[in-house]
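Tokens for chain A. Residues wanted.
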């Protein structure tokens, strides 16, 4: 009789515990993801590495000329970027990143954390190591990933039309071979040269609202056959033929 009573009590405790665990697991994350999984709802005033990962993915959803700081602090500008991301994908735009927001991000990223419509190979046609540039290989590759997330936002805003990249990361030797500037953003993995459709001017104009510090296009010396975007920290835009 005592054993039966003890078993009953243990069963009740285990069922209750399972219910609590289930509640916690579904409160802050929509699903497990092979790239990165958020385990809590994020909102203004919070900080941490999970905020940093969120900022990387919403940095392309900003106002004209804005560059979102990827600093791990969920401030007003991060809230606004999250709200713009949510609005862009038909979610309730409250600026709070919860299960629905994370589920959308999961659907947009591959296992290697690149957005679904871009690859590391597109951002590095120079070598397979990401080495030889102005920063470490790991930093160059990370910078390229952040550039791709901005391009993903830009691609969606353009109606989900393909964006083609002719040049991304360059080592010093690759940069010299194409006559690149000695201080080119390509050496840091932060730059991408865009070609194809839409027009170069349309690409340059659209890039203004996706967090790119550098935009160079038609009318700027050496840029009549492509539009250049990069993640420099200060703004430098010049595409005179496009009104920029």
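Reply:
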């Amino acid at each position: 009789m005592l054993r039966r009573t003890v078993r009953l009590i243990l069963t009740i405790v285990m069922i209750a515990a399972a219910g609590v665990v289930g509640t916690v697991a579904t409160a802050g994350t929509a699903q497990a993801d092979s790239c990165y999984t958020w385990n809590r709802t994020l909102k203004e005033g919070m900080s941490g590495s999970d905020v940093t990962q969120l900022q990387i993915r919403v940095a392309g959803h900003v106002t004209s000329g804005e560059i979102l700081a990827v600093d791990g602090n969920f401030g007003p500008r991060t809230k606004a970027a999250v709200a713009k991301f949510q609005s862009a994908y038909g979610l309730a735009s409250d600026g709070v990143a919860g299960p629905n927001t994370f589920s959308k991000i999961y659907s947009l990223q591959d296992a290697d954390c690149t957005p679904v419509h871009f690859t590391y190979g597109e951002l590095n046609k120079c070598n397979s190591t990401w080495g030889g540039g102005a920063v470490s290989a790991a930093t160059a590759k990370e910078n390229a990933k952040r550039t791709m997330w901005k391009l993903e936002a830009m691609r969606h805003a353009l109606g989900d039309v393909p964006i083609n990249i002719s040049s991304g990361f360059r080592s010093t030797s690759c940069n010299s071979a194409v006559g690149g500037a000695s201080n080119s953003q390509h050496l840091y993995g932060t730059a991408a040269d865009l070609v194809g459709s839409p027009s170069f001017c349309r690409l340059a104009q659209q890039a203004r609202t996706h967090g790119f510090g550098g935009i160079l296009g038609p009318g700027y010396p050496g840029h009549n056959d492509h539009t250049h975007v990069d993640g420099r920290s200060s703004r430098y835009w010049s595409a005179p033929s496009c009104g920029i």
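The chain has a mean pLDDT of 90. Strands lie at 164-167, 191-195, 214-216, 227-230, 236-238.
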